[in-house]
Write a structure and sequence with these properties.
The protein is an alpha/beta fold. It is 46% helix and 16% strand. The chain has 2 domains: 188 residues, NAD(P)-binding Rossmann-like Domain (Rossmann fold); 144 residues, N-(1-d-carboxylethyl)-l-norvaline Dehydrogenase, domain 2 (Orthogonal Bundle), CATH 1.10.1040.10. The longest helix is centred in the middle third of the chain and has 22 residues. Pathway: Cofactor biosynthesis; (R)-pantothenate biosynthesis; (R)-pantoate from 3-methyl-2-oxobutanoate: step 2/2.
């Protein structure tokens, strides 16, 4: 299969290095300095001391149809990325959105839509529901200044068609290719459940880490931060049960997950430190809109704090002073009552 990866950030680089180093035919869509770096040096991933490196084709936009296209951009950039690379997506191309948050396809087949996910209608225009694969990736990745991806765990990916009528033979070939590349991949029996489990952990950690500057293990170790993470998870759990009929893991599971993750900065914390736009729409605002006003007070208060750039600027050093944290926690507790 010929594989295209749109986006050369943490996840895109890691996937390109794994597939490319295993002999896969990989084209990476990148831009600016990142495009120049890949053309010169290729892509590489340091997986706990094991180096995966490959020379891949790097382009500014796809100009020929590929068998599978991985969308490795932020959720808010999906529509523009698909539109810009429409020439690489044929009617039978498998499209794999590797995103955090509540994905645009979640209500495919059920008649609903995900707020904020496709404001310009570009995804609906360019993609057939039958060619979209739901994806849940579990992988911690950071990027060095030199452009090398660094991971501390084995990538685990679950895939599944999001509506009936998908090409099952092509999906099987893609899963075989990924497994041969070192990505532990399975065909999920319930991809929407897995999306919600990951969404709960994202909501409980990503915005909190971006605001306080603390990594996953620090949130798990510090009682005050862990308490806020649990409040956020409680709100997601209640919404999923009430509106979607889904049961999600308890807080004890979440606490173990935080400690097991180690001193790893969430993707949103990495974005905050770099001054990039945060994935608040997909991770936070979509669930808030679906749950309804007042249903998630802790999450709403946290998003409001993140939006208050004068109080907590989203660039520079981590916000970790005792005064700032006390003000933050106090405001959350007051707004969540």
């Amino acid at each position: 299969m010929n594989i295209a990866i749109i986006g050369a950030g943490n996840i895109g680089t890691a996937m390109a290095a794994l597939i490319g180093s295993a002999g896969g035919d990989v084209t990476v869509v990148a831009r600016g300095h990142r495009l120049d770096t890949i053309r010169r040096d290729g892509v590489s991933l340091d997986d706990r001391g094991t180096l995966h490196a490959a020379q891949v084709t790097a382009v500014t936009a796809l100009d020929q149809v590929h068998d599978a296209v991985f969308l490795c951009v932020k959720a808010q950039d999906l529509g523009a990325a698909v539109a810009a690379n429409a020439a690489g997506i044929g009617p039978e191309t498998l499209v794999v959105p590797m995103i955090n948050g509540l994905p645009f396809w979640y209500f495919y087949g059920a008649g609903g839509t995900v707020p904020f996910s496709d404001p310009a209608g570009q995804l609906a225009y360019h993609l057939r529901p039958e060619q979209v694969l739901g994806a849940v990736l579990l992988m911690t990745v950071q990027m060095t200044a030199a452009g090398r991806a660094v991971s501390t765990n084995t990538p685990t990916l679950s895939l599944a068609p999001v509506v009936a009528g998908a090409d099952s033979a092509a999906i099987s070939r893609l899963i075989d290719l990924l497994c041969a590349s070192g990505v532990r991949t399975d065909l999920s029996a319930d991809i929407r459940q897995q999306v919600l489990v990951k969404l709960m952990s994202n909501i409980a950690t990503n915005p909190l880490s971006a605001l306080t500057g603390e990594n996953l293990a620090q949130i798990g170790r510090e009682l005050s931060l862990r308490s806020i993470a649990y409040q956020l998870a409680d709100e997601v759990r209640a919404w999923a049960d009430r509106m979607l009929g889904r049961s999600l893991p308890p807080n004890a599971w979440l606490g173990d997950l935080l400690l097991d993750a180690g001193d790893f900065p969430t993707s949103m914390l990495q974005d905050a430190r770099a001054g990039r736009v945060l994935e608040l729409d997909a991770i936070c605002r979509a669930p808030l809109a679906l749950a309804g006003e007042g249903a998630m007070p802790c999450l709403a208060a946290l998003v409001a704090q993140l939006d208050s750039a004068d109080t907590f600027p989203l660039t520079g050093a981590p916000r970790s002073t005792a005064v700032e944290r006390l003000l933050f926690l106090t405001s959350l507790e007051r707004n969540s009552e």
